[in-house]
Amino acid sequence: MNSIQSEDSSDLPLDTLRVLVVAAFAGALVGIVGGAFRAALNFITSHFLAFSAYLHSIDGEWFVPGFIVVGLITSICVGISRMLVRLEPSTIGSGIQHVEAVMHGVAKPSPFRALPIKFFGGLLSIGSGMALGREGPTVQMAAIIGSECGKLTRLKVVEQALLYTAVAGAGLSVAFNAPLSGIAFSFEEISKKISIKRLMVSFAAVTSGMIVFRSYFGNSIEFVVGDLLPDLSISLYFYILFSVLLSFIAVLYSRTIIGTLNLSDSFPAISPVNKAMMIGFGLGALAYFYPTLVGGGDIQVQSLLSEDYFLFPLMLLMIGRFFLGPISYSTGVPGGIFSPILLMGSGIGVLFVLAVNPLLSHMALGQLDPISFALVGMAAFFTVVVRAPLTGILLAIEMSGKVGLMIPLLIASVICTTIPVLLKQEPIYDALRDRAHP
What we know:
Elements: H1 2-5, H2 13-58, H3 66-87, H4 96-103, H5 114-127, H6 135-152, H7 157-166, H8 168-176, H9 179-191, H10 196-217, H11 235-265, H12 272-289, H13 298-305, H14 311-329, H15 338-362, H16 370-386, H17 389-400, H18 406-422, H19 428-436
């Protein structure tokens, strides 16, 4: 830790320039690798869902029911993914907790072999229907690229550690096409400190990464959102009430993640691979009957933001996803929690408005905008679970292109940072890091 703290020790200008050049090169590689991961994941996910729909159309013509076929496919994919993790334990789960552990000096950077394990393991697990996000694997792969580039160019040890964590921000930027969010996440969550040198390195890595990513994979906004309704005079009061209610739900969600991990560990007689395969079979079978329940959550968020929802199905979706995310994460396969919690926040935001609007109509006070509350809910839920309010705000803005919700987002960030502290809820990556490195 002391060596990391000395990263801003006086360097010659050429030394600083060298680090920036290496960071820019590493960022460009992140743009290629992260973009390829996104593209491959989209391809696999779409074909997995299409194959499941095809089995529906011919169900009854095979000797084996369609749900068993899909369940076996997911089970095998998840099992292989979990076996890959055994080759390099640092690739388990999201991977962000390991990047943070390196920053805190309690773990060594992942070796290069972790990169293909994370890449292909993530494709197998997320692409086959597990309720996990792409951002965790992308961030860890970016950190590995930064570290390896530092080694190959023979940078100082402290500069290699700087690249490992700072370049990780380029991974998040590529995962969501959100450059400012990646920079904020690098400081707010991974390093938890700001220095001029770290800022410059992060800027260089994220800028080059985004240029390469957008050149090869396009620059479409993550979520297409229509015009928002103007806020009512009493809207801020409802944003406050919503943020308080959501904070308690999100704290419970964080505890459910840790609880499912503890529950999984309570069955040591069953190998991690077998546990992952059993859960994978269940998720695959569920995907056959209810495809909208599974996957990372991006498709469902876009449906919500396109106002394609009904009260009862949305309630079932939120209840199901509340448990599917933690259960999927308990398998230990490569996959993150960002996308699932963005879905939870947006869905709860829409449900809140659907519950309140009839009352407001009865009182002739107007209507709240469900999409506005969905976007605020995304940032708020993220803030409670991850405890990175600035990153949450920037994610909601960059992924939707809506900047008019700044005041509600700031209100939610204050409330959703305060309540978890009062409830003594540890940030999720701190809790995961403590489990791995007690």
